Amino acid sequence: MANLFTRLKATVVADFHELLDQKEQKHPMTHLNQYIRNCEEEVKRLKQLIEKQYTIQQEYQKELQLANAMVEKRKRQATLAEEMNEEELVQEAIEELQHYQTRVNQLSEMADENKNQLSQIETKYVQMKQKLKDLYVKRLELRGRENIARVHKGMNNVLHTELLDKSESKFQDVENYIERLEQQVTTKYRLHTLDARFAELEKKVSTSK
After folding, report:
1. What is the pLDDT of residues 27-82, one digit of tens each?
2. Mutual orientation of helices 87-159 and 28-83 as an angle, nearest 10°?
3. Which residues does UniProt call coiled coil (predicted)?
């Protein structure tokens, strides 16, 4: 399982860079998110299998307890039959005792092996979850890098020389327009003032006659 996630992580990174190089129309982060969702589903599925294995371990222990109980029971019965000189019962009890003892040995080995396997599986499961966490962190890093790249790109567009030249030209056009308006206002004011002064002068001349 650990090797699976190691290969999967390597594939994710490789495919991500390949998608960036190819400049596909579909955002590469979409593919990365899909990989992570697949990993999450795999972790969930394996967790269910591990829980099932614990159930099997409990069944081993239950059967082992029953077999041990039968061993003790047949021992007592064999002893009782021997004390009562019941040779036939003694023989039957001993045969079943051997049968249950064999079962106890078999179940003990199976339970111990399953316990060891569970320990290994749990260790790998923890490693697998750590690998998944690594994918989360890697995705976060890539998202941060992408956002920073977008910020720099936007800033470069604003600070680009041609754009600045165009903006300066636009400001100059506005400034020239305002200056023309100011000149027109000043000229009209002067003309109005001059006409008013001549009108006053003409009025005085007319009155003096």
Report:
1. 778 888 888 999 999 999 999 999 999 999 999 999 999 999 999 999 999 999 99
2. 170
3. 29-138
- Going by C-beta distance under 8 Å and a sequence separation of 6 or more, which residues neighbour residue 37? none
Q: Both tokens of residue 67?
A: 């077999």
- Rounded CA gap, 158 and 171, in Å? 16
> 96 to each of 33, 68, 74, 168, 202, how far by Cα in Å?
60, 12, 7, 104, 148
Domains along the chain with CATH numbers: 2-165 (1.10.287)
Q: Letter for the amino acid at 203?
A: K
Q: Where does residue 24 fall: left (phi above 0), alpha (psi -120 to 50 degrees), or beta otherwise?
A: beta
Q: Are 61 and 70 in contact (CB under 8 A)?
A: no
Q: What's the angle, vertex CA 165, arms to CA 163 and CA 171, rounded to 5?
A: 105
Q: What is the dihedral of CA 126, 128, 131, 133, to 10 degrees?
A: -60
Report the Cα 113 to chain-centroid distance in Å. 35
